[in-house]
Design brief:
The structure holds two protein chains of two kinds.
Chain A: E1 5-7, E2 10-13, E3 19-24, E4 31-37, E5 44-50, E6 53-57, E7 64-68, E8 74-78, E9 87-94, E10 104-106, E11 110-114
Parallel strand pairs in A: 2-11
Antiparallel strand pairs in A: 1-3, 3-8, 4-5, 4-9, 5-6, 7-8, 9-10, 9-11
Chain B: E1 3-5, E2 10-14, E3 19-21, E4 24-26, E5 32-38, E6 45-49, E7 60-61, E8 72-74, E9 83-90, E10 101-102, E11 106-111
Parallel strand pairs in B: 2-11
Antiparallel strand pairs in B: 1-4, 3-8, 5-6, 5-9, 7-8, 9-10, 9-11
The chains are: A mainly beta, B mainly beta.
C-alpha cells in the first residue's frame, strides 16, 4: 500500500477561484480528515468524514466543503479563494470505528498558493 | 478554550545530551495526548500516545494532569532525532472526537 495519497502535489490559483483537492486513504480505512497547515504553524483541523458522513468540522468558513465517496476517497473544495488560503493541505486516514480511532496516517499534502 | 502550546520553536542540543520537548495543554476534560514527528522530506507520523505508555525510538512522554503537560523526553539524543515535533490533543466526547488540536511544533536540531 502506498499509504495515503493526495493530488495534486502543488497548485497555484488566483483570488476568487475555486479549488478541489483529492485524497485516497489507506486501503481499509473508512475515515478521512483534512487539515490546513499554514507556514510556521501546526496542522489545523478542517473536517473529518467517516463512512461518507461528516463527523466533525473545524472553525473554517462555509467556503470550505468536503465529501467522501463510496470508495472512501475524499475531496476538499474551497470556493472564492483568498490569499490567506495559501497553505499546505493535509489529508489523514484512520482505521477503526468512529470515535475510537486514534492513529492518523498522513498524506504528503497539497501545497496551495493563492496569488 | 482548547489549546496546545509548544513554547519552543527551535531546540538545539548536542548528540548524546538529554532532550526535553515541552508541551502544555488547556482542556477541561480528559484528553488523549499524542506526539507526532516529521523527519526531513517525510510525512507527518505518529511517534507515541500517552495511553500506550510506550517508548518509541528512546522517547517517552508522561501525561501530568496537574500541570497539564505532556513533555517528550529522551535521555541521549541522536543525530537522526533531528525533525519537527508536534504535540496533539484529541478531545474526549463523541461530538468532539474528531477535532484533533495540534501545537505549533518544535524543531529539534541535534548537533554532532
Amino acid at each position: 500500500d502506498a499509504g495515503v495519497t493526495q493530488s495534486p502535489t502543488h497548485l497555484i490559483k488566483t483570488r476568487g477561484q475555486h479549488v478541489t483537492l483529492r485524497c485516497s486513504p489507506i486501503s481499509g480505512h473508512k475515515s478521512v480528515s483534512w487539515y490546513q497547515q499554514v507556514l510556521g504553524q501546526g496542522p489545523q483541523f478542517i473536517f473529518q468524514y467517516y463512512e461518507k458522513e461528516e463527523r466533525g468540522r473545524g472553525n473554517f468558513p462555509d467556503r470550505f466543503s468536503a465529501r467522501q465517496f463510496p470508495n472512501y476517497s475524499s475531496e476538499l473544495n474551497v470556493n472564492a479563494l483568498l490569499l490567506g488560503d495559501s497553505a499546505l493541505y493535509l489529508c489523514a486516514s484512520t482505521d477503526g470505528d468512529f470515535p475510537y480511532q486514534e492513529t492518523q496516517y498522513f498524506g504528503p499534502g497539497t501545497r496551495l498558493l493563492v496569488l | 478554550a482548547q489549546r496546545v502550546t509548544q513554547p519552543e520553536k527551535l531546540l538545539s542540543v548536542f548528540k548524546g545530551a538529554p532532550v526535553e520537548l515541552k508541551c502544555n495543554y488547556s482542556y477541561s476534560g480528559s484528553p488523549e495526548l499524542f506526539w507526532y514527528v516529521q523527519y526531513s522530506r517525510q510525512r507527518l507520523q505518529l511517534l507515541l500516545r500517552h495511553i500506550s505508555r510506550e517508548s518509541i525510538k528512546g522517547f517517552t512522554a508522561d501525561l501530568n494532569k496537574g500541570e497539564t503537560s505532556f513533555h517528550l523526553k529522551k535521555p541521549f539524543a541522536q543525530e537522526e532525532d533531528s525533525a519537527m515535533y508536534y504535540c496533539a490533543l484529541k478531545p474526549s466526547g463523541y461530538s468532539s472526537a474528531s477535532k484533533i488540536i495540534f501545537g505549533s511544533g518544535t524543531r529539534l536540531s541535534i548537533r554532532p
